Amino acid sequence: MSHLVDDPSKDPAPDPAEDNAYFPSPYSLSRYVSPKTDFDGVRHQGAYTQGRWKVLMIAAEERYLLLKNGKMFSTGNHPVETLLPLHHMMEAGFDVDVATVGGYPAKLELWAMPREDRAVLAAYESVKPRLKQPKKLSDVTANSLGEDSDYIAVFIPGGHGAMVGLPTSEAVGQTLDWALENDKFVITLCHGPAALLAASLGKDESPFKGYSACVFPDAFDEGPNIEIGYLPGRLQWLVADLLSRQGLNVINEDMTGRTHQDRKLLTGDSPLASHKLGLLAADALIEAAQTAG
After folding, report:
1. What would the mean pLDDT of 181-187 be, rounded to a whole number?
2. Band of pLDDT at residue 170, cut at 50, 70 and 90
3. Three state DSSP letters for 165-221
4. pTM
5. Radius of gyration (C-alpha) of the chain in whole angstroms
6. Percent of the chain predicted with pLDDT > 90
7. In sequence order, which ranges of the chain are alpha helices (DSSP H)?
8. Separation between Cα atoms, residue 282 and residue 267, nearest integer Å
9. How would residue 293 be classed by pLDDT, with cut points 50, 70 and 90?
10. Backbone angles phi and psi of 204, in degrees to 5
11. Which positions are annotated as active-site residues?
């Protein structure tokens, strides 16, 4: 069957802001981006009122991911994977601080923004100033982490941007060490678990060895994401593969919106898991805050 002339193209769309850089193809966006998410409400509206506990979000600040073929993918933090979990946590009553490795503005994949989703758009308006002027993560590790820290959780959103800088950042590794040593939550999804690789820096093995997690399936980045033009080439490395090599148990092979909790590591497999992960995170944070007082 021949394609109609107005069928969306599977060719990645050139990004005019950078040499040999590309956005996802129109066809891939027609498959992956919807005007609304599956959000159907929060579970803990205003439940936390004491005001002490906050969430530290570590966001990607780099726009471009270099691929094997020399092309660059124009990426960042996926807006649904960033803003929908945040919406649940903020609506429950937890404030959010945003940090990036260098203190430069967080980048969003705005081409994936669900333009008719009130929850996502409300969260975006709320955190936009913090995305534009985030904290420098090394300043946070030096001044705001410790046994008496006001952070109850570390949240690392998804998007291929999480593969750039976060896995090799000493400050990310220090933050994850602090979270594990002080029994804090680590919440992440899709490609965000790439940041967990930083926990192994300077160590013989990852402190997350033996943990189970949901991660975006490598098979999609190796196959369909290239075939439909979402990516302009093959990735230089694969998230689930490297995490598995470090001893984590990746429990999903497909993309169904699955979430999982292993101790205080909360993970989701894809944008489809954003709402469920937000619900899971809000449940966990409210329970922990009520216990801690």
Report:
1. 98
2. very high
3. CHHHCHHHHHHHHHHHHCCCEEEEECCHHHHHHHHHCCCCCCCCCCCEECCCCHHHH
4. 0.96
5. 18
6. 95
7. 26-32, 79-91, 118-132, 137-143, 170-181, 218-222, 224-227, 239-245, 274-292
8. 13
9. low
10. -75, -30
11. 190
